[in-house]
Specification:
CATH topology: Rossmann fold
Structural class: alpha/beta
CATH architecture: 3-Layer(aba) Sandwich
Largest sheet: 5 strands, parallel
Helix content: 55-70%
Strand order of the largest sheet: 2-3-1-4-5
Number of helices: 8
CATH class: Alpha Beta
Number of strands: 5
Radius of gyration: 17 Å
Distance between the termini: 15 Å
CATH superfamily: P-loop containing nucleotide triphosphate hydrolases
Amino acid sequence: MKKGLFITFEGLDGAGKSTQIQKVKEIFEQKGFEVVLTREPGGTDISEKIRKIILDNDNDEMSFVTEALLYAASRAQHVQQKIKPALEDGKVVVCDRYVHSSIAYQGYGRQLGAEKVMEINSHAIDDIMPDISFFILLPSDKALERLKNSNRELDRLEVEEIDFFLRIENGYNCIAEEYDNIIKIDASKSVNEIAHIIYDKIFVEIEKWKNSKG
């Protein structure tokens, strides 16, 4: 049984997840907790190698099912090597994306179906789901605009057409309706406004965590 606290952040690239993840890390460290900051796809050497395959623009012939399986493979290694041990040690794990991303991107974006993608990931996650997940949601057109203005080479998924991102946006909204521990946040709010919303929810989660530990 896990003893730590597992927090994930979700949303389209450009929504401001990275900024808030750093703030959450600082909150926990100031309270004396040990924090493991990680990301998906990636987080371990093997998972990072799989990430490169997934996002490589040269792999434009990759089938959608292959893509979903590669994400799951990366996640399986990540869970077993990093997330699960950290939680068992009582640490706070803060992860940039997790299985909800696969449901949104491959289930809805690639139209494989949410149930099929969750089935693919059932063994990868090893029954480990977030205690709380923050969905920082930005409209697809604004997310794409931020990506185009980012002055970096876009990866294989980021160069997709707007319809792909509209389906992902819809997917995130649908997923959020299914889980009580998902907090939807409007990415158009200021950085400080978002941080306050997250802090309030984190404080409640810390108290619940403390109580569960006796």
